[in-house]
Amino acid sequence: MNRSILVVFISSLAFSLNAQTLDTLDKTTKSFQNSFFVELGGAARMASINYERALSRKDRNSKTSLRIGYGAFRRGLEINGVGGTYTIPVVPIEFSVSNTFSKHSINMGIGIAPTWDKQIYFNFYYGGGVKEEFYVTYFARIGYLFQGTKGLLLKVAFVPLLTKEFEASTNSIAISYTRKLIPWAGISIGQSF
After folding, report:
1. What residues contact 26, with CB distance under 8 A and at least 6 apart?
2. Strand ranges for the chain from DSSP E
3. Which long-range contacts (CB under 8 A, 24 or more apart) does 74-79 make?
4. Residue 109 three-state SS
5. Is the Cα torsion angle 26, 28, 29, 34 positive or negative in sign?
6. Rounded to an integer, what is the distance from CA 144 to the centroid of its chain?
7. d(CA 34, CA 18)
8. How distant is the alpha carbon of residue 184 from its chain centre?
9. Average pLDDT over residues 67-75
10. Residues in CB range of 120: below 8 A, 6 or more apart
11. Do the beta carbons of residue 87 and residue 134 sit within 8 Å?
């Protein structure tokens, strides 16, 4: 709980400190500073809701943004009758750069996704149980961004994830994790304002 409050506080601070930069934009150009969107796949693996704020815009063709979201994925785990299906919460945080050509953009970003996972373990002598595990998934994004003149937002991207994966052990109480690179993708649709 304290970790999630810290993540929200740091993100809010970053948004407020960089909001002043956007006041220097030319008011005659149509530029959106805020976006709200739903992402399927992507950094949260299954689905997430997200808020994105433009931090700076050097001209009409380039902008940097910061995004924070909340999502989840489901994991079914069972070893020798221990376990079940769990919903795993994820908080994707991303810094991105967009290079625009009319309504179409190339969107690139890097980020982290704090994850509160549940893993099961089983030991022949002691039985089994469920252990909660906090870890950070790292991700990158490269893809296409469509920004309509009335605010429609559409993103399609390749999103590789560097995450921890659980490896079950039947002869030890210890739970082992390995870093794993997962080639992944995401599609987002939302509204900018």
Report:
1. none
2. 34-41, 47-59, 62-79, 82-90, 93-101, 104-123, 127-147, 152-158, 161-167, 176-182, 185-192
3. 74/46, 75/117, 75/118, 77/118, 77/119, 77/120, 77/166, 78/120, 79/120, 79/121, 79/122, 79/128, 79/168, 79/170
4. strand
5. positive
6. 17
7. 13
8. 12
9. 92
10. 77, 78, 79, 82, 83, 128, 129, 130, 131, 168
11. no
Compute the distance between CA of residue 186 and CA of residue 193 in angstroms, rounded to an integer.
Answer: 22
Could you report the per-residue pLDDT of 5-35, keeping only the tens digit for each?
Answer: 555 555 554 555 444 444 444 343 457 899 9
| pTM assigned to the model | 0.76
- Round to whole Å and give the CA distance between 155 and 11: 22
CB atoms near residue 17 (< 10 Å): 10
Scan for tokens 């809701």, then name that residue: 49
User: Which tens digits make up the pLDDT trace of 87-127?
Assistant: 889 999 999 999 988 789 999 999 999 998 876 666 666 66
Residue 33 DSSP SS3: coil
Q: What is the spatial distance between Cα 94 and Cα 155, in angstroms, rounded to a whole number? A: 14
As a whole number of angstroms, the distance between CA 176 and CA 132 comes to 13
Closest C-alpha to 183, from 156, 161, 155: 161
Percent of the chain with pLDDT over 70: 67
